[in-house]
Every structure is written in structure tokens, then in C-alpha cells.
Amino acid sequence: MTYRLLTGCFIAFLSCVGLHEARGASEEHLIVAGRHDVRVATYQDIARIYERFEHFPQAAKEGLSLHFTGELLPDHDYPSKARLMVHSRDGDIPLFFGQDRDMHFPLTDRLKAENPPVLQTEAIGHNVRTELSLVVALPAPQTFTGTEARHWLRQVNACIRDLTGVILSWFMPDAHRLKIDIAPGANFEAVTSGTVRVLASNVSREPMTVLLRPQDYAEDTVFRSSKPFGRVRVKIPGEAYVTFTPDR
Predict the structure, then answer these.
(1) Packing angle between helix 10-17 and helix 146-164, nearest 10 degrees?
(2) What is the pTM of this model?
């Protein structure tokens, strides 16, 4: 299988974003510049997800962007160590860089028409797993409100209803949590009616991710960080993992 979706409830949601497994793929080993590489996907396998997101209703996707965040299993290492490449005619294009866990996928009409393979060129025998999430364009770098957070959750739920239909959406979980990236040395707080509650303190040298249920706080709550947020993501309903595995 080119790549495998590891999820329960999110399977139905992926009917929205258009994730499809490759059909009829046979085992294939590709030799590039003397290396023993394996194919784990095709360009269009991945592009299809981004394209489906672009077909979300404009109001539902306003201020949101689709992201893949990866790790190299089984040690949860940096995905760049697997050296996933789009193997195009014009040369290899890496999908991950250094300690950056975000996948950087080149969306172009030329590559879509060519549909080159995606190769894993290092750490053969280990798999890159990616999580899909929707990143919010924050109106302010260090604060957001309970009202804004609820709006972001409703946007994702609107995508589900609009693209699967009202009846099917009854059987799917709503988006109800945010993932907040807290900068090193920062405090993350909730301020409600003048009362300050510390939600997290990041004493490490690395960003820290915390989960937040905005519904647990009043709508007029202000969520703030002593340093700019790394990013705020809406956690897609279910466990939205896509794992790149060699063709079988």
C-alpha cells in the first residue's frame, strides 16, 4: 500500500478531503544515483488532498491552511532523516528539512501533469507518519478569544456538513480541540472576568504543544501567551494520521 490511514472516525472525514490509497500498486524498488530507494507514494496521491481542501466552501476555509506534520517511526525522530523526495524529471525535491516537522509539498501544474513518484531514500525500514491539521491565521500573535476559538471549530464542522451532507455528519465527531504551540520560556494563560488561570508553563528550550477545549471556558475568555504563539491548529476530528509505507 502506498500510504496507510491510521484512524477511526476520521475515515469519513477523509471522504471530504479526498485521500485515496493507490490501487493495484506492486512492489517496486527504484535506483537513483546508485542508492537503493523505495516508492512510498505518487505526487498526485498527496496533491489530491490539498486540492480537495481548496474545494472547501470559502467561508469554511477562510483563515485556515492545511498542514502535514511528520515524525519518523518508531523513535518519533525528525522526518527529514528518511529523505522523502518528489523524484521529478528536473531533480529530487525534498519534502522535509532539518528539524522542521512540517511537510513542504510543491504544488504546481507541471508536477501534477508529470505525477512523479515520491521516494524514501534513507532510513529504509522505518516509516514517516504525518498528522493532518488545520492551522489558524491568528489575528494577534499572542492572544485570541474564546469567541474566535469557537468560530474556528465551527468552520471545520461546516466543512464536514457541506462536503458529506447533513445526515452523514450526524455520525461524525465535531472538531472540539485546538493544538497550541507554546514558545520556550512562555506562560499560556486564560483570563476570564479578570481572573487569570495559568494553563501551561514551558520551561524547556523547545516549543511545547498543549491541547485546549475552548468550550470549557466562557466565550469572553482571553487566551494569551507571554511570547508569540508558534501556531494554533484545529485538531481534525478523529486521529488523522497518514503513514508513508513502501509499495507492496
Answers:
(1) 80
(2) 0.75
